[in-house]
Amino acid sequence: MYRKRVAATLVAGVAVAMFGAINPATASETAPAAGSVRMWEDPNYTGSQYVDATPANCPDGCDIDGWDGDNEISSVRNETNCTVRLYADDNFGGRSVDLAANTSYSNLEQIGFDNEADSFQFKC
Ligand SMILES: [Ca+2]
Ligand SMILES: [Ca+2]
Ligand SMILES: [Ca+2]
């Protein structure tokens, strides 16, 4: 009985070891997909953080709140595998700019979109 239990534990241990060996590769591929895009009021990811969204919870695009965010966003961390398209107007209208996947923008002024964004969409 004791021997049997040890054997079962060993098998489980080997399975965990194998899974553990395989998992890091898949984790590094899938982890950014679970990441989010975050947007701040000021450059260098400072000031109020107005947006924290994932492609999953924003499948058809998202509004940036009219009171807390519209025409204020100055820095963005895009930690998703998707391009984030910022729009100058609500409802994905007006001028737009694409933020590359897995890229951070410490100052949107550098791409001519400081204090402009009103809404955004993921392009996955
Ligand atoms: Ca700003
Ligand atoms: Ca605007
Ligand atoms: Ca808005």
TrEMBL record:
<feature type="signal peptide">
    <location>
        <begin position="1"/>
        <end position="27"/>
    </location>
</feature>
<protein>
    <submittedName>
        <fullName>Peptidase inhibitor family I36</fullName>
    </submittedName>
</protein>
<dbReference type="Pfam" id="PF03995">
    <property type="entry name" value="Inhibitor_I36"/>
</dbReference>
<keyword id="KW-0732">Signal</keyword>
<dbReference type="InterPro" id="IPR011024">
    <property type="entry name" value="G_crystallin-like"/>
</dbReference>
